[in-house]
Amino acid sequence: MKTVKKAIIPSAGLGTRFLPATKAMPKEMLPILEKPTIQYIVEEAIASGIEDIIIVTGKGKRAIEDHFDRNFELEETLIKRGKLGLLEKVRQPSEVEIHYIRQKEPKGLGHAVWCARKFIGNEPFAVLLGDDIVRSDQPALKQLIEQFDVTQSSIVGVQMVEDYDTQRYGIVDPGLKEGKLYQVNNFVEKPKLGTAPSNLAIMGRYVFNPEIFDFIASQDTGADGEIQLTDAIQRMNQVQSVYAFDFSGRRYDVGERLGFVKTTIDFALEDQLIREELLNYLVRKIEEVKLADKSLGYNYQKME
Ligand code: UTP
Question: In principle, which of 29, 161, 166, 270 could form an S-S bond with 36, CB 3.0–4.6 Å?
Fold first, then answer.
């Protein structure tokens, strides 16, 4: 029986939604509080039993390699100053082998995954995207790997989204359902509003059999002139079943500005050191904004 020990984290995108910050800094290094988003993803992979990670990087992504490397000078200074708590944070996470490969041009997510094919070889593997951070009792990827261990089939992680959000995601047209596992008739990339076959959206966690590389290799460029992973999954599903699994957990969308701000607030509210002061600030702020906007007749109570 095959199981999953390797993971790819594609991190070679341009991060246009965060320009100009991402002009000289990888989007994946933007922090939620003091931790870069990519570190949350690496920690999820480790907690899911992954032993080797390959990060697909691109131009201007050196900071990611430096982040996961040791920094002896910094460590020495922290030891001298007795800052052992910080030392611990700086050394983590070290339990996993991290490898790097460059995607020379940002030709799309499918292409980024394909760049790591030699590292993966003929084994099943996971893909984790940094746009989604998931908080759950059992790591999201681990939930998918457990399903893979039973089905031995490729699986994409999905969650329900609102109708108006379906146009932002790859959407699943579900077939038979068993528990939270779906057979899939079709995978549709970013369907136009009102045309989505369901509200089950692909959420940046995947487990693949290695045959996916053949489908990516023969994939034409799709929307935006990029090689789309969803298109390759759709074609693979015609030959070899790809399942969708509705994983448990709270998902934070950190790939766009509003989601990023909401995530920062949520994580800060869980931090006992700043929680109270932040809450007081937010309450005061809301009152202030309401008062200022009253003249516009805006009713905030109607918002979610
Ligand atoms: P996104 O489209 O969310 O990331 O791709 P992006 O292109 O960096 O961001 P925007 O849309 O311009 O703001 C999803 C993931 O796929 C990676 C990205 O780094 C991100 O983690 N990716 C995308 C690549 O590695 N290579 C690509 O050519 C495209």
Answer: 29
